[in-house]
Amino acid sequence: FAVAGRGERRIDLLVLSHRDSDHTGGAAAVLAAPADNAAACRVASSLGVAPGALYWHIANKQALIAALAEDIIAPVAGSTLEEISLHLRELLLARRDGAEVAIAGLSQPDSQAWDHLVAQFSSATCPDFDAAARKAAALSAVHLVLGATLLEQSQRQLLETTGGTTAADYRADLVRGVRIINAGLQHSEAD
Question: Using CA atoms, how far apart are residues 179 and 185, in angstroms rounded to an integer?
């Protein structure tokens, strides 16, 4: 999407899968690093390009995170709120720290990716409802998916490092939550 459109096809793979020297993962390292030249130099070095070449395509750390978020969520699709919610969850889980990176990128002011995501979710709600109710349901579902998936991803990564297990059924919990949002949408229209 945004990163690939700028000719940098390996940045998302590097940042989301590369293990930094502290073994926290590339995305976490980029998110935690100060917005200075050091982080950009590490990313550029790992890509085998000069920092100036990296900045030719990506202006700064915030732009890198925004581009990664756009790249993660770009394929999201679904004809129902449940389908699109589950698809977004899959996209976020497919990348190490995917939920964290997506939230960081989507939370930036004037995020076009955020507007696009909310529009996609709104279009997956029942067209019989008014636009305001559909947008409210879409926002609720997006917030649910992002928050629940961030928690799931964090818990799974912790369990990986500690060797623990969980009986949680994250997918089923998300489906129940989305169904409650849908029920609330239908109930609001009945009033």
Answer: 10
